[in-house]
Design a protein that fits this description.
Order of helices and strands: HHHHEHEHEHEEHEHEHEHEEHEE
Largest sheet: 6 strands, parallel
Number of strands: 12
Radius of gyration: 24 Å
Structural class: alpha/beta
Shape: elongated
Helix content: 40-55%
Number of helices: 12
Strand order of the largest sheet: 2-1-3-4-5-11
Strand content: 5-15%
Length: 351
Amino acid sequence: MPTMADVARSAGVSVATVSHVLNGTRPVLPHTRQAVLDAVDELGYTPNTLARSLVTSRTRSIGLAVSAISNPYFTEILQGVEAEALRQGYSLLIADPHDDPAHERKVVQLLHERRVDGMIIAPSAEPGDLLAYLDRHRVPTVLLDRVVDGPPHFDQVCAENAGPTSRLVTHLAGLGHRRIGVVAGLPGLSTSAERLAGYRSGLTAAGLPYDDGLVAHGDSEAAGAERATAALLSLADPPTALVTANNAMTIGALRTLRDRSLSVPGDLALCCFDDFAWADLFSPRLTAIAQPSKELGAEAVRVLLARLAAPDRPARTVRLPCAFVHRSSCGCAEAPARTAPPSPAEKGTDS
Protein backbone atom coordinates (compact mmCIF):
# COMPACT_ATOMS: atom_id res chain seq x y z
CA MET A 1 0.00 0.00 0.00
CA PRO A 2 1.53 3.35 -1.04
CA THR A 3 2.47 5.77 1.72
CA MET A 4 2.62 9.54 1.96
CA ALA A 5 6.38 9.26 1.52
CA ASP A 6 5.82 7.43 -1.79
CA VAL A 7 3.54 10.26 -2.94
CA ALA A 8 6.18 12.83 -1.94
CA ARG A 9 8.92 11.03 -3.92
CA SER A 10 6.70 10.68 -6.99
CA ALA A 11 5.70 14.37 -6.90
CA GLY A 12 9.22 15.58 -6.08
CA VAL A 13 8.12 17.37 -2.92
CA SER A 14 8.47 16.94 0.83
CA VAL A 15 6.15 14.81 2.95
CA ALA A 16 5.11 18.04 4.71
CA THR A 17 3.97 19.51 1.39
CA VAL A 18 1.89 16.41 0.64
CA SER A 19 0.31 16.76 4.09
CA HIS A 20 -0.52 20.43 3.49
CA VAL A 21 -2.17 19.59 0.14
CA LEU A 22 -4.25 16.72 1.52
CA ASN A 23 -5.22 18.41 4.77
CA GLY A 24 -5.56 22.00 3.56
CA THR A 25 -3.40 23.21 6.43
CA ARG A 26 -1.29 25.65 4.39
CA PRO A 27 -1.52 27.26 0.93
CA VAL A 28 0.48 25.45 -1.76
CA LEU A 29 1.42 26.71 -5.23
CA PRO A 30 -1.09 25.50 -7.85
CA HIS A 31 1.43 23.52 -9.93
CA THR A 32 2.82 21.85 -6.79
CA ARG A 33 -0.68 21.00 -5.57
CA GLN A 34 -1.51 19.47 -8.95
CA ALA A 35 1.70 17.40 -8.93
CA VAL A 36 0.74 15.98 -5.53
CA LEU A 37 -2.82 15.19 -6.63
CA ASP A 38 -1.52 13.52 -9.82
CA ALA A 39 0.82 11.37 -7.72
CA VAL A 40 -2.04 10.44 -5.41
CA ASP A 41 -4.11 9.29 -8.39
CA GLU A 42 -1.25 7.45 -10.05
CA LEU A 43 -0.24 5.55 -6.93
CA GLY A 44 -3.75 4.99 -5.66
CA TYR A 45 -2.85 6.51 -2.30
CA THR A 46 -5.63 6.54 0.32
CA PRO A 47 -5.16 9.03 3.20
CA ASN A 48 -5.27 7.69 6.75
CA THR A 49 -8.34 9.49 8.06
CA LEU A 50 -7.54 8.76 11.71
CA ALA A 51 -3.98 10.04 11.40
CA ARG A 52 -5.18 13.11 9.53
CA SER A 53 -7.70 13.90 12.27
CA LEU A 54 -4.90 13.81 14.85
CA VAL A 55 -2.96 16.38 12.83
CA THR A 56 -5.85 18.71 11.96
CA SER A 57 -8.14 18.16 15.01
CA ARG A 58 -10.89 17.57 12.44
CA THR A 59 -12.58 14.28 11.51
CA ARG A 60 -14.35 15.65 8.42
CA SER A 61 -17.56 14.16 9.73
CA ILE A 62 -20.95 15.71 10.52
CA GLY A 63 -23.51 14.49 13.04
CA LEU A 64 -27.15 14.58 11.89
CA ALA A 65 -29.95 14.17 14.46
CA VAL A 66 -33.48 14.25 13.02
CA SER A 67 -36.60 12.50 14.28
CA ALA A 68 -38.86 10.28 12.18
CA ILE A 69 -36.24 9.46 9.57
CA SER A 70 -38.91 7.25 7.97
CA ASN A 71 -40.97 10.41 7.26
CA PRO A 72 -40.55 11.23 3.53
CA TYR A 73 -39.93 14.89 4.39
CA PHE A 74 -36.97 14.10 6.64
CA THR A 75 -35.80 11.40 4.24
CA GLU A 76 -35.45 14.01 1.51
CA ILE A 77 -33.69 16.37 3.93
CA LEU A 78 -31.28 13.55 4.75
CA GLN A 79 -30.61 13.06 1.04
CA GLY A 80 -29.79 16.74 0.70
CA VAL A 81 -27.48 16.69 3.72
CA GLU A 82 -25.69 13.55 2.54
CA ALA A 83 -25.19 14.75 -1.04
CA GLU A 84 -23.78 18.12 -0.01
CA ALA A 85 -21.62 16.63 2.75
CA LEU A 86 -20.14 14.14 0.30
CA ARG A 87 -19.53 16.90 -2.24
CA GLN A 88 -17.65 18.83 0.42
CA GLY A 89 -15.62 15.77 1.46
CA TYR A 90 -17.46 15.02 4.72
CA SER A 91 -18.96 11.79 6.03
CA LEU A 92 -22.22 11.59 7.97
CA LEU A 93 -23.20 10.00 11.29
CA ILE A 94 -26.97 9.78 11.76
CA ALA A 95 -29.14 9.44 14.88
CA ASP A 96 -32.91 9.56 15.49
CA PRO A 97 -33.84 11.47 18.70
CA HIS A 98 -37.48 10.25 18.41
CA ASP A 99 -38.67 13.75 19.40
CA ASP A 100 -37.91 12.79 23.02
CA PRO A 101 -35.87 15.42 24.90
CA ALA A 102 -34.00 12.90 27.08
CA HIS A 103 -33.17 10.61 24.16
CA GLU A 104 -32.28 13.65 22.06
CA ARG A 105 -29.72 14.77 24.64
CA LYS A 106 -28.25 11.26 24.80
CA VAL A 107 -27.80 10.70 21.06
CA VAL A 108 -26.33 14.16 20.54
CA GLN A 109 -23.80 13.50 23.29
CA LEU A 110 -22.89 10.20 21.60
CA LEU A 111 -22.35 12.00 18.30
CA HIS A 112 -20.22 14.58 20.07
CA GLU A 113 -18.13 11.82 21.66
CA ARG A 114 -17.47 10.51 18.15
CA ARG A 115 -15.69 13.83 17.56
CA VAL A 116 -17.84 15.02 14.70
CA ASP A 117 -16.73 18.45 13.49
CA GLY A 118 -20.23 19.85 13.85
CA MET A 119 -23.90 18.90 14.05
CA ILE A 120 -27.14 19.45 12.19
CA ILE A 121 -30.14 18.93 14.48
CA ALA A 122 -33.93 19.17 14.16
CA PRO A 123 -34.67 19.94 17.84
CA SER A 124 -37.56 18.53 19.86
CA ALA A 125 -40.37 20.60 21.34
CA GLU A 126 -38.41 20.86 24.62
CA PRO A 127 -34.78 21.41 23.55
CA GLY A 128 -33.54 23.20 26.69
CA ASP A 129 -31.11 20.50 27.87
CA LEU A 130 -29.89 19.92 24.34
CA LEU A 131 -29.13 23.58 23.70
CA ALA A 132 -27.43 23.95 27.07
CA TYR A 133 -25.17 20.98 26.27
CA LEU A 134 -24.27 22.29 22.81
CA ASP A 135 -23.57 25.76 24.19
CA ARG A 136 -21.52 24.49 27.13
CA HIS A 137 -19.31 22.38 24.88
CA ARG A 138 -19.24 24.98 22.10
CA VAL A 139 -20.32 22.44 19.49
CA PRO A 140 -20.69 24.04 16.02
CA THR A 141 -24.37 23.44 15.33
CA VAL A 142 -27.05 24.23 12.78
CA LEU A 143 -30.67 23.85 13.86
CA LEU A 144 -32.68 22.48 10.96
CA ASP A 145 -36.39 22.83 10.12
CA ARG A 146 -37.36 23.87 13.66
CA VAL A 147 -36.03 27.15 15.03
CA VAL A 148 -35.63 28.34 18.61
CA ASP A 149 -35.79 31.80 20.12
CA GLY A 150 -33.47 33.39 22.65
CA PRO A 151 -29.95 32.60 23.79
CA PRO A 152 -27.82 30.68 23.17
CA HIS A 153 -27.88 31.62 19.52
CA PHE A 154 -27.26 29.01 16.83
CA ASP A 155 -27.29 29.09 13.05
CA GLN A 156 -30.68 27.95 11.80
CA VAL A 157 -32.05 26.75 8.45
CA CYS A 158 -35.77 26.33 7.84
CA ALA A 159 -38.56 26.86 5.34
CA GLU A 160 -41.08 29.64 5.40
CA ASN A 161 -44.15 28.41 7.29
CA ALA A 162 -46.57 31.24 8.06
CA GLY A 163 -46.89 32.77 4.59
CA PRO A 164 -47.49 29.50 2.74
CA THR A 165 -50.07 28.32 5.30
CA SER A 166 -51.86 31.65 5.01
CA ARG A 167 -52.02 31.09 1.27
CA LEU A 168 -53.78 27.74 1.72
CA VAL A 169 -56.42 29.43 3.88
CA THR A 170 -57.01 32.35 1.52
CA HIS A 171 -57.22 29.92 -1.39
CA LEU A 172 -59.98 27.97 0.36
CA ALA A 173 -61.73 31.18 1.38
CA GLY A 174 -61.61 32.31 -2.23
CA LEU A 175 -63.58 29.20 -3.14
CA GLY A 176 -66.37 30.29 -0.78
CA HIS A 177 -65.47 28.38 2.38
CA ARG A 178 -66.28 30.19 5.60
CA ARG A 179 -65.60 27.47 8.16
CA ILE A 180 -62.02 26.34 7.58
CA GLY A 181 -60.56 23.99 10.14
CA VAL A 182 -56.91 23.18 10.79
CA VAL A 183 -55.17 20.07 12.08
CA ALA A 184 -52.17 21.66 13.76
CA GLY A 185 -48.85 20.11 14.74
CA LEU A 186 -47.23 19.22 18.04
CA PRO A 187 -47.33 22.19 20.45
CA GLY A 188 -43.87 23.49 21.26
CA LEU A 189 -42.43 23.04 17.76
CA SER A 190 -41.72 26.26 15.89
CA THR A 191 -43.19 24.74 12.72
CA SER A 192 -46.48 24.13 14.54
CA ALA A 193 -46.60 27.66 15.95
CA GLU A 194 -45.67 29.34 12.67
CA ARG A 195 -48.18 27.38 10.60
CA LEU A 196 -50.90 28.07 13.13
CA ALA A 197 -49.99 31.76 12.96
CA GLY A 198 -50.25 31.53 9.18
CA TYR A 199 -53.68 29.95 9.51
CA ARG A 200 -54.84 32.87 11.66
CA SER A 201 -53.35 35.48 9.34
CA GLY A 202 -55.03 33.79 6.37
CA LEU A 203 -58.40 34.06 8.10
CA THR A 204 -57.75 37.74 8.79
CA ALA A 205 -56.74 38.38 5.19
CA ALA A 206 -59.94 36.68 4.02
CA GLY A 207 -62.11 38.68 6.45
CA LEU A 208 -63.06 35.57 8.44
CA PRO A 209 -63.23 35.36 12.24
CA TYR A 210 -60.90 33.07 14.18
CA ASP A 211 -62.75 30.27 15.96
CA ASP A 212 -60.73 28.26 18.45
CA GLY A 213 -63.19 25.39 18.00
CA LEU A 214 -61.93 24.90 14.45
CA VAL A 215 -58.37 24.23 15.65
CA ALA A 216 -57.44 20.66 16.62
CA HIS A 217 -53.92 19.43 17.36
CA GLY A 218 -52.82 16.29 15.58
CA ASP A 219 -49.42 16.33 17.31
CA SER A 220 -47.58 16.03 13.97
CA GLU A 221 -48.47 12.34 13.55
CA ALA A 222 -51.05 10.32 11.66
CA ALA A 223 -52.80 8.80 14.69
CA GLY A 224 -53.14 12.19 16.35
CA ALA A 225 -54.56 13.64 13.14
CA GLU A 226 -57.17 10.89 12.97
CA ARG A 227 -58.42 11.91 16.42
CA ALA A 228 -58.21 15.63 15.62
CA THR A 229 -60.11 15.26 12.36
CA ALA A 230 -62.81 13.16 14.04
CA ALA A 231 -63.23 15.87 16.68
CA LEU A 232 -63.64 18.58 14.03
CA LEU A 233 -66.15 16.52 12.07
CA SER A 234 -68.14 15.91 15.25
CA LEU A 235 -68.79 19.62 15.81
CA ALA A 236 -72.39 20.79 15.63
CA ASP A 237 -71.28 23.04 12.78
CA PRO A 238 -68.30 21.21 11.25
CA PRO A 239 -65.79 22.78 8.85
CA THR A 240 -66.37 22.61 5.12
CA ALA A 241 -62.65 22.78 4.41
CA LEU A 242 -59.55 21.55 6.21
CA VAL A 243 -55.86 22.45 6.29
CA THR A 244 -53.49 19.76 7.56
CA ALA A 245 -50.13 21.00 8.80
CA ASN A 246 -47.78 18.20 7.73
CA ASN A 247 -47.74 15.10 5.54
CA ALA A 248 -48.24 12.54 8.33
CA MET A 249 -51.31 14.40 9.57
CA THR A 250 -52.68 14.53 6.02
CA ILE A 251 -52.61 10.72 5.94
CA GLY A 252 -54.38 10.59 9.31
CA ALA A 253 -57.07 13.04 8.18
CA LEU A 254 -57.70 11.06 4.99
CA ARG A 255 -58.09 7.85 7.00
CA THR A 256 -60.76 9.45 9.17
CA LEU A 257 -62.61 10.78 6.13
CA ARG A 258 -62.47 7.33 4.52
CA ASP A 259 -63.76 5.66 7.69
CA ARG A 260 -66.73 8.04 7.66
CA SER A 261 -67.34 7.53 3.93
CA LEU A 262 -66.74 11.23 3.27
CA SER A 263 -65.34 12.34 -0.06
CA VAL A 264 -62.77 15.01 -0.91
CA PRO A 265 -63.64 17.60 -2.11
CA GLY A 266 -67.33 16.69 -2.34
CA ASP A 267 -67.94 16.56 1.41
CA LEU A 268 -64.82 18.40 2.59
CA ALA A 269 -62.18 20.41 0.74
CA LEU A 270 -58.62 19.60 1.79
CA CYS A 271 -55.29 21.41 1.46
CA CYS A 272 -52.09 20.30 3.13
CA PHE A 273 -48.69 21.57 4.16
CA ASP A 274 -45.99 19.24 2.77
CA ASP A 275 -46.09 17.79 -0.68
CA PHE A 276 -44.86 14.21 -0.96
CA ALA A 277 -44.14 11.71 -3.70
CA TRP A 278 -47.58 10.08 -3.79
CA ALA A 279 -49.68 13.21 -3.16
CA ASP A 280 -50.69 13.28 -6.82
CA LEU A 281 -51.66 9.58 -6.74
CA PHE A 282 -54.64 10.17 -4.46
CA SER A 283 -58.05 10.75 -5.96
CA PRO A 284 -58.45 13.65 -5.96
CA ARG A 285 -54.86 14.80 -6.16
CA LEU A 286 -53.79 16.86 -3.15
CA THR A 287 -53.32 20.62 -3.25
CA ALA A 288 -50.22 21.20 -1.14
CA ILE A 289 -47.37 23.40 -0.04
CA ALA A 290 -44.09 21.87 -1.20
CA GLN A 291 -41.03 22.49 0.95
CA PRO A 292 -37.56 22.53 -0.65
CA SER A 293 -36.53 19.52 1.44
CA LYS A 294 -33.28 18.53 -0.27
CA GLU A 295 -32.16 22.14 -0.55
CA LEU A 296 -32.84 22.65 3.17
CA GLY A 297 -30.49 19.77 3.92
CA ALA A 298 -27.82 21.00 1.53
CA GLU A 299 -28.06 24.56 2.86
CA ALA A 300 -27.68 23.32 6.43
CA VAL A 301 -24.36 21.70 5.46
CA ARG A 302 -23.16 24.88 3.77
CA VAL A 303 -24.09 27.00 6.79
CA LEU A 304 -22.32 24.55 9.13
CA LEU A 305 -19.13 24.58 7.06
CA ALA A 306 -19.22 28.37 7.01
CA ARG A 307 -19.45 28.26 10.81
CA LEU A 308 -16.44 25.91 10.99
CA ALA A 309 -14.48 28.32 8.80
CA ALA A 310 -15.45 31.38 10.87
CA PRO A 311 -16.37 30.25 14.42
CA ASP A 312 -16.86 33.77 15.80
CA ARG A 313 -19.15 35.26 13.19
CA PRO A 314 -22.71 36.22 14.24
CA ALA A 315 -25.35 33.50 14.06
CA ARG A 316 -27.82 33.67 11.19
CA THR A 317 -31.17 32.22 10.23
CA VAL A 318 -31.77 31.17 6.63
CA ARG A 319 -35.35 30.72 5.45
CA LEU A 320 -36.14 29.14 2.09
CA PRO A 321 -39.38 29.76 0.19
CA CYS A 322 -41.98 27.06 -0.47
CA ALA A 323 -44.10 26.35 -3.56
CA PHE A 324 -47.88 26.24 -3.86
CA VAL A 325 -48.84 23.08 -5.81
CA HIS A 326 -52.38 23.44 -7.14
CA ARG A 327 -54.24 20.17 -7.63
CA SER A 328 -57.90 19.27 -7.16
CA SER A 329 -58.51 18.32 -3.50
CA CYS A 330 -59.43 21.95 -2.78
CA GLY A 331 -62.52 21.63 -4.94
CA CYS A 332 -61.62 23.74 -7.94
CA ALA A 333 -60.40 22.92 -11.43
CA GLU A 334 -56.89 21.55 -11.44
CA ALA A 335 -54.09 23.67 -12.87
CA PRO A 336 -50.57 22.59 -13.82
CA ALA A 337 -48.16 22.50 -10.87
CA ARG A 338 -46.25 25.74 -10.66
CA THR A 339 -44.07 27.73 -8.38
CA ALA A 340 -45.69 31.13 -7.99
CA PRO A 341 -43.54 34.16 -7.25
CA PRO A 342 -43.35 34.26 -3.44
CA SER A 343 -45.31 36.93 -1.64
CA PRO A 344 -43.38 39.25 0.70
CA ALA A 345 -44.30 36.96 3.59
CA GLU A 346 -42.95 33.93 1.70
CA LYS A 347 -39.66 35.35 0.42
CA GLY A 348 -36.57 33.72 1.82
CA THR A 349 -34.43 35.73 4.20
CA ASP A 350 -30.89 35.35 5.40
CA SER A 351 -30.37 37.29 8.59
